[in-house]
Amino acid sequence: MKRMDTVECDVLVVGSGAAGFAAALTAKHEGLHVIMAEKEPVFGGTTCFSAGVVWIPANSSAKKADLPDSPQLALEYLKQEAGNKLSEQQAMSFLENAPKMLEFFEANTHVKFDLLQNMPDYHPTLPGGVAGGRSLRPQVYDGRQLGQWFEKLRAPLRTMTIFGGMMVGSADLPHLYNVTRSPRSMLHAAGLFGRHVLDRISHRRGTRLTNGNALIARLAKSALEENIPIWLSSPVEKLTTQDHRVTGAILRRNGEQVVLAARRGVILACGGFPANDDMRQRFDSKIKDGKYYHSLAPSTNTGDGIRMAQDVGAAFDDNVKHHVAWTPVSLVRQPDGSAVGFPHFNDRAKPGFIVVDRHGNRFANETNSYHDFTPAMIEADRDEKNVEAFIIRDHIAIRRYGIGAVPPRPLRLEPFVKIGYLKRGKSIRELALHAGIDPKRLCATVANYNLGAHSGEDSQFGRGADPFQRVHGAEHDRGPNPNNAPIEAGPFYALRLIPGDIGTFAGLKTDEHARVLDGNNNVIPNLYAAGNDMASVMRGTYPGAGITIGPAMTFAFIAANHISGLQQRNELPQPQP
Ligand SMILES: Cc1cc2nc3c(=O)[nH]c(=O)nc-3n(C[C@H](O)[C@H](O)[C@H](O)COP(=O)(O)OP(=O)(O)OC[C@H]3O[C@@H](n4cnc5c(N)ncnc54)[C@H](O)[C@@H]3O)c2cc1C
């Protein structure tokens, strides 16, 4: 039998999403010899699909902007969100370390964020909630800085780019909505388009990177400068142990098995189990990826980290309010017959959009967060075999704001009608018949909604009640309430939604240092987990924008500092006053 090659390092990081890169860069900064192993031929995981937003309460940018906050205030908010499921010790570890993590990365790497001053927490009126200052977005990055590695950066979701790979960030969106109304917006859009045309001469997609692609590109640029080996196409298959202590792992590289001896520790950052139907069905037997459910995470996030840790005695922690981070999804059929998902995070909040079930009834406040709205969708169809719902809106609304993968004016919507993504009807009744919704009921629902919408009211569900709901509407655009406008200018459109997720919340049981625990709450020496491999510190709740990547990077930072001994020596950098 062929002898397996053995390679030595101090720290093995498994996975190359936000958690993996954050762990590797922190460990390297502490002088440790790190190797990153990534299963896929591309790096970046789900993080590359994401908006890249991080939730960091009491961060120094908010302080500079005079937005008062503190870890204690944020803890109060998390207690309201997660109730007795919250581990205060772990939550406090996150809240105390998150601002330090942010300062560390902004000072020592290419990672740079902009404060989203006006992005409220998702339940800003709860005690401890704030109306802005906890969420930050990665700054736009020039992918050309990665040189040849740009080709290895996982591309964003196809449904979230335009013109064959042009990325649009949330700061660009207001300009795109106003392109036919404001010369400044038209100039901005022309600049984006011009750059994209130039890019396409030499690259297979746009190199002006926004959101999660920008975050991973920035992290990767720093990792490459630090000479951290990033082994692509190298799935880790098994952890190795000696006397219950994790000593490394066995991975497959170039078709051969390699033993990786990790002297100081292994950090699992494989992105949870969103692509593992069997694991997901333990929580909900109805849910299987396909026509009626869609996970937006990469199909290779199959729970490997969790399985490997369980094989060496780790406990799986499902004491969470929801096992996944929910979002409503629409499926866009591609020319090759496959379907790519689009996450409906905020478009439901625009004026002139309502969502109904197949009986034609509204069932929830559509301006609620995606994580709150999707369970309402599932509940509405509790007695049905499958869950689906429909966004309904009129011609004015769809051309003004677009919907899902359909861009706003002046781009065309006709191709989306042609592929059946959008159903259209001259009247609400005709629309209902085309979309398979009860026509009588839908007419009554729209008429009822319109009654109040003229004066900005939504007597049924109160759209636009708090700052979170209003921020995703369109201020003073179509009337007194940024979230409400009548649905009356035909033709009318329906778009089918199904439940989906952007990642998992249940995961490995860990302590406040991100150490993996066994069923008796004992530490498994030298084994750490970060990102979606660890059970979410938010306990399956979604308190604000960035609550998965913020903790992912923070617990990765904590894990690497713990391995290096910095944490024990209490020498972590302190945030600037
Ligand atoms: C459209 C969308 C938007 C989102 N926006 C946000 C947002 O703005 N803010 C936020 O906080 N969250 C957001 N999320 C969720 C967020 O992207 C994820 O929760 C987060 O990126 C997970 O990071 P991670 O490092 O744990 O995993 P990932 O980024 O998924 O990385 C895991 C990596 O591990 C690799 N891997 C798996 N198994 C193995 C193995 N055996 N060996 C080696 N490698 C392996 C995978 O291939 C993958 O590359 C969004 C998600 C989506 C889909």
What can be said about this structure in brief?
Helices cover 29% and strands 21% of the residues.
Category from helices, strands and their pairing: alpha+beta
Question: What is the number of helical segments per DSSP (H or I, 4+ residues)?
Answer: 16
Largest sheet: 8 strands, mixed
Give the radius of gyration: 24 Å
Mean pLDDT: 93
Bound molecules: flavin-adenine dinucleotide
Q: How many strands appear in the DSSP assignment?
A: 24
Percentage of helical residues? 25-40%
Distance between the termini: 61 Å
Poorly predicted runs of 5 or more residues: none
Beta-strand percentage range: 15-25%
Tell me, briefly, the overall form. globular
Observed structural traits:
single chain, alpha+beta, 7-stranded mixed β-sheet, binds flavin-adenine dinucleotide
Care to describe what's here?
Strand 12 (245-253) and strand 13 form a beta hairpin. The protein is of the alpha+beta class. Helix 13 packs across helix 14. The protein starts with a strand and ends in a 13-residue tail after the last helix. The strands form 6 sheets. Strands 1, 2, 10, 11, 12, 13, 23 and 24 form an 8-stranded mixed β-sheet that branches. It has helices at 18-29, 60-64, 71-82, 88-108, 173-177, 183-202, 211-225, 277-281, 304-311, 370-380, 395-401, 414-418, 428-435, 439-453, 467-471, 549-564; strands at residues 5-14, 34-37, 54-55, 113-115, 135-138, 141-142, 161-162, 166-167, 208-209, 230-231, 236-242, 245-253, 256-268, 294-295, 316-317, 324-333, 339-343, 353-356, 389-394, 422-425, 492-504, 507-508, 515-517, 523-529. Helices cover 29% and strands 21% of the residues. The mean pLDDT is 93. The protein is built from 16 helices and 24 strands. Bound molecules: flavin-adenine dinucleotide.
